[in-house]
């Protein structure tokens, strides 16, 4: 099967690594990919916002399956674009329709969807410029902390947790009156703050049936002990020790099933991943957010723990036959640690040569590239998050330790990584 995978991060390297293991894959193209994905298939320099170029490539190469890694092409309607073309609508497409992708593309859409289907989530109201004054009053009277969310995609920066009313009103004004996040903050969701522990659940659905992939927890802050600025993600672990079978049963009954049934009832075309960001409050799960794709770096622990043939799973998704398959999970816990460029998530330099990448890895470790590229005969840094090391272990803590050992042998100028991924699950933490 001729497969095109779209994206260029660690998530896509992990997906490419897994797709490349399937006997069905022949060949695998990755667009645009990175220096790691080129070890699993053929990189193609396509611009993901250029739908015509993607379509022309698929027709020329007779692509039979398209797998979309990042959210943007989905939110902009790549699925619908394929459906509208007679030559492309038969291509197996892994990723939701534009409407389905609104679960991520519009916080207001996602909240209204949850309310319609009685899916537990934080209480909220939405505002735009037409009811701005009412919004200011609402924000001012809201218990603290209060959460402000730009409605649209804002590169992961659109959520602000405010601890004073002065800050909250000022952010509210910045978003709605000064277009702080451009189009994305034309509407703002004002939400109750939920105090609990977070985890991410990954669902693969064919629109009717679904399977649950391993759950994961990611580490967003740049600094150890979860301090400092937010990043795209500095590491992840799977499984999550507090996601007990009893809790996961609640997640399935109260959240996953009503989500799939809701999509069905509303006739929303959805064949792909749903990443559900959850928070556990007093033993109960609440949805913080939906994403219409897998997370990065969660994918780098979730996919290595999946034992099924990924192409086989995707074919079942495309044919709406997911009910005929059973998911098989590697019992070994996994942890991934992301190495980033010095200065990230602020200003950082690119183009530093990475040393040690060619050293053989221990049997239970994997290395996935994110911001890398080939230059002459070296591999150089090409982004904030540069690569990650995933390891299996007897516990997530031991797995993280193994990844740190691997990271000792790899280096580039100003490389930084968190040494405490999985810290709350260390034996001394008593969990
Ligand atoms: P989001 O972009 O919706 O995932 O939000 C980013 C982060 O903000 C989440 O991972 C949470 O840590 C936090 N967050 C979002 N909404 C809430 C909420 N209602 N209560 C507490 N924390 C929240």
Radius of gyration: 21 Å
Q: Mean of the pLDDT scores? A: 96
Please, how many helices? 12
The ligands bound in this entry are: adenosine monophosphate
How are the strands ordered across the major sheet?
A: 3-2-1-4-5
Number of strands: 20
Low-pLDDT regions: none
- Helix vs. strand class: alpha+beta
Query: Major beta sheet, specifics?
Result: 5 strands, parallel
Percentage of residues in helical conformation: 25-40%
Portion in strands = 25-35%
Query: How would the global form be characterised?
Result: globular
Distance between the termini: 45 Å
Q: Can you tell me about this structure?
A:
- With 431 residues, this protein is an alpha+beta fold.
- Helix content is 28%, strand content 27%.
- It has 12 helices and 20 strands.
- The strands form 5 sheets. It has a 5-stranded parallel beta sheet with strand order 3-2-1-4-5, with helices on one face.
- Strand 10 (197-205) and strand 11 (210-212) form a beta hairpin.
- It is globular, with a radius of gyration of 21 Å.
- Residues 122, 147, 159, 191, 193-194, 198, 277, 288-289 line the site of adenosine monophosphate.
- The site of adenosine monophosphate has 10 residues, from strand 15.
């Amino acid at each position: 099967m001729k497969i095109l995978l779209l994206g260029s991060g660690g998530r896509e390297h992990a997906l490419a690594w897994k797709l490349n293991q399937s006997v069905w894959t022949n060949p695998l193209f990755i667009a645009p990919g990175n220096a790691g994905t080129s070890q699993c298939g053929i990189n193609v320099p396509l611009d993901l916002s250029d739908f015509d170029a993607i379509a022309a490539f698929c027709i020329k190469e007779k692509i039979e399956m398209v797998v979309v890694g990042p959210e943007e092409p989905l939110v902009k309607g790549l699925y619908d674009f394929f459906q509208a073309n007679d030559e492309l609508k038969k291509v197996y497409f892994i990723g939701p329709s534009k409407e389905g992708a609104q679960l991520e593309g519009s916080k207001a859409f996602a909240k209204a969807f949850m309310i319609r289907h009685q899916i537990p989530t934080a209480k909220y109201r939405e505002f735009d410029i037409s009811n701005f004054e009412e919004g200011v009053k609402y924000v001012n009277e809201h218990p603290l902390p209060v959460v402000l969310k730009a409605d649209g995609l804002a590169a992961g920066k659109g959520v602000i947790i405010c601890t004073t009313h002065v800050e909250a009103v000022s952010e509210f004004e910045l978003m709605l009156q000064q277009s702080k996040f451009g189009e994305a903050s034309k509407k703002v969701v004002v939400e109750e703050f939920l105090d609990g522990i977070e985890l991410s659940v990954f669902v693969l659905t064919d629109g009717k049936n679904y399977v649950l992939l391993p759950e994961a927890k990611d580490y967003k802050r740049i600094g150890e002990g979860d301090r400092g600025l937010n990043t795209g993600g500095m590491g992840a672990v799977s499984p999550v020790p507090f996601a007990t079978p009893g809790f996961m049963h609640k997640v399935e009954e109260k959240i996953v099933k009503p989500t799939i049934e809701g999509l069905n009832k509303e006739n929303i075309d959805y064949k792909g991943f749903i990443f559900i960001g959850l928070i556990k409050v007093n033993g109960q799960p609440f949805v913080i957010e939906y994403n219409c794709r897998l997370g990065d770096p969660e994918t780098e622990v979730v996919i290595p723990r999946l034992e099924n043939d990924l192409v086989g799973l995707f074919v079942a998704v495309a044919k709406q036959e997911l009910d005929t398959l059973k998911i098989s999970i590697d019992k070994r816990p996994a942890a991934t640690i992301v190495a980033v460029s010095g200065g990230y998530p602020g200003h950082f330099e690119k183009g530093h040569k990475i040393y040690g990448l060619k050293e053989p890895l221990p049997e239970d470790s994997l290395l996935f590239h994110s911001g890398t590229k080939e230059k002459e005969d070296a591999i150089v840094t090409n982004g904030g998050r540069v690569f990650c090391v995933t390891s299996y272990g007897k516990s997530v803590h031991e797995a993280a330790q193994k990844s740190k050992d691997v990271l000792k042998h790899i280096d580039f100028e100003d490389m930084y990584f968190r040494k405490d991924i999985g810290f709350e699950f260390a034996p001394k933490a008593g969990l």
